[in-house]
Specification:
This protein is of the alpha/beta class. The chain has 19 helices and 17 strands. Helix 15 packs antiparallel against helix 16. The longest helix is centred in the C-terminal third of the chain and has 31 residues.
């Protein structure tokens, strides 16, 4: 039908259904102005481009594109000939829009609203939906045809835009944080969609009730779609009212809590960009975040010899003179080291980065493994290492600020415990990055102290005393390492009283032990007993001296633990 229209002299065709209502009587004028503006801006013939109508039923998605007459000259028809067998009744619309998006030739006609209540519904459709699996990956290949057309027909030499989407899984659904992210200034040479994946459907409906006064609160697909649209509209309005112009925002909601990995996967499924920037929903990005990433990508475009699969941004935790003891302990425990690793000059080439601020090349078929904990832990390492072995560069000036996790000290312990349970799955996934060491405090207490207490009938008092002494020995040996103690103190960046440093260090060691307990529990719960007394090389062979030094230190600690255990058992025997 489209080709017949073009053959009869149509300037453009609109891909519609028989159940849609266009709520703008002057849509013809809006479309004409869009094509005229594209012709003036790009220097291409009139009819080049793909504007799209504002579908209020499915906002933020190019459901109904307008295809100019030049498209037929470029591809020989509506669908490129080599893709004719790939599209049946789904996905052609966004595919066409994305082909032109890279040239800034796919504007949204905000004033031309269209409703599609029946066709846009998830249920009660009139036909079986047949998706064109993989269309997002075809875009980057098929766009070369348009690039050749532009270079030949455009005297201005329109340069392709960089397609970079921002994916944010959100369980907390803190609107203030999401507003900041969605209001980020997008570089002129980028085309970006902010994709928010809501992973807390119950909280979504409650939040939207407060924003728009919704009455219905059943959590079926229709309700969540309605709530997602309302949240999308709310964030778009906030973005427009910010310093910068409104950004393209898309909100999708999971039917149930699926976890961070599954939510990021859904974000990847929604994206057809060349790069995807992952952000957490509890970070505060600096206003120049996307501009900084753009600088690094442009620099890499010049250096074509370097294989770049992504950039690791800086996730900075707060420092100030009145830092609470528990937060100082978190920093001194090195548990946030990988968040801030891009700031270290020695770490300019990295194997992986945390998904709180990580820009990666979108690799066809590559997804996060959902075997890891829902709240996160290890899935970012796994994802990056499977992405052609990493090949990431540090981007220290691409900064987001990460507040410390809320809650009491027990909440922090619980957070780190579950974190370690998740990342313990890495040991069997990447055995070449695992090395043998000596039992740490947690492993010593479980595989040596507890069996001895049962075999030799230790009293609860002796068992408690040995446990305390092992933990105290672990802390003391770390504090006694003066150079290491000074390094940990410098992480805080401000000067504190020596007593504060000492207390924070002790608490930091307890946090590490809790982490070790979580990792041990992860091994045992999966039946992976062979991983006891093994360690994962988090630097992935990039700093070979660290595993050697770590093993040497664990050997000294383990020898001390054995001495304590032998002394306790000997003393008990003599006393009896």
């Amino acid at each position: 039908m489209a080709e017949v229209a073009w053959s009869r002299g149509a300037s453009w065709v609109i891909l519609l259904g028989d159940d849609v209502v266009i709520d703008c009587p002057f849509h013809y004028r809006a479309i004409y102005r869009a094509f005229l503006q594209l012709s003036e801006d790009l220097g291409c013939p009139f009819g080049f481009g793909c504007p799209w109508l504002n579908d209020v039923t499915f906002p933020g998605f190019p459901t109904f594109p307008v295809i100019g007459k030049e498209h037929k000259k470029i591809f020989g028809g509506l669908i490129p000939r080599h893709r004719c067998d790939s599209f049946c009744n789904q996905d052609l619309d966004p595919y066409l829009q994305r082909l032109y998006l890279q040239f800034g030739a796919s504007p949204l006609l905000k004033d031309v609203e269209l409703s599609n209540s029946r066709g846009g519904a998830a249920e009660d459709v009139r036909y079986k939906r047949i998706h064109a699996v993989g269309w997002r990956d075809w875009v980057l290949d098929d766009v070369d045809t348009i690039r050749r057309y532009v270079s030949h027909h455009s005297p201005k030499g329109a340069r392709p835009k960089l397609l970079v989407d921002v994916v944010v899984p959100s369980y907390r659904l803190d609107l203030e944080f999401l507003e900041r992210i969605c209001s980020l200034h997008v570089p002129e040479n980028w085309r970006t969609t902010f994709i928010i994946i809501v992973d807390n459907p119950v909280l979504l409906v409650k939040k939207i009730e407060g924003i728009r006064g919704m009455i219905k609160s059943t959590y079926d697909h229709q309700t969540l779609t309605l709530a997602s649209c309302q949240l999308e509209k709310f964030l778009s309005e906030k973005s427009i009212s910010s310093t910068y112009s409104g950004n393209n925002i898309r909100v999708r909601a999971n039917l149930k809590n699926a976890g961070a990995s599954a939510s990021r996967n859904r974000g990847l499924d929604e994206s057809a960009a060349e790069y995807v920037l992952f952000l957490d929903d509890d970070v505060i990005p600096e206003s120049t975040l996307l501009e900084e990433y753009n600088k690094y990508l442009c620099m890499n475009a010049v250096d074509e010899e370097t294989l770049l699969m992504g950039l690791v941004g800086m996730v900075k935790f707060p420092r100030h003179p009145n830092l609470p003891l528990k937060h100082a302990a978190v920093l001194m425990s090195y548990l946030t080291f990988m968040f801030e690793i891009s700031s270290k000059a020695v770490n300019q080439h990295l194997a992986w980065g945390v998904t709180a601020n990580l820009l990666v090349k979108r690799v066809p078929g590559l997804r996060f493994d959902t075997v890891y904990a829902k709240s996160g832990g290890g899935e970012d390492v796994d994802f990056c290492l499977r992405m052609m072995g990493g090949h990431l560069k540090a981007a220290p000036n691409a900064i987001v600020h990460h507040p410390f996790w809320d809650g009491s000290l027990l909440h922090l312990f619980s957070h780190f415990f579950h974190w370690a349970v998740g990342d313990s799955a890495l040991f069997n996934r990447f055995p070449t990055l695992v090395y043998h060491s000596y039992p740490n405090a947690a492993e010593t207490l479980l595989i040596i102290v507890l069996p001895m207490a049962i075999i030799f009938s230790w009293s609860y008092l002796i068992l408690a005393l040995v446990t305390i002494l092992v933990v105290a020995c672990d802390v003391t040996m770390d504090v006694a390492d003066w150079k290491e103690f000074q390094n940990r103190c410098e992480v805080l960046e401000y000067r504190y009283h020596p007593w504060f440093y000492l207390r924070a260090h002790v608490l930091a060691n307890l946090m590490v032990i809790v982490l070790e307990v979580g990792r041990l529990w992860g091994h045992l719960s999966r039946g992976q007993f062979v991983n006891v007394a093994k360690r994962f090389d988090w630097h992935c062979d990039r700093l070979p001296a660290i595993p050697r030094n770590f093993c040497r230190k664990e050997l000294l600690k383990f020898a001390s633990f054995i001495s304590i255990i032998c002394f306790a058992n000997f003393s008990r025997t003599n006393y009896n």
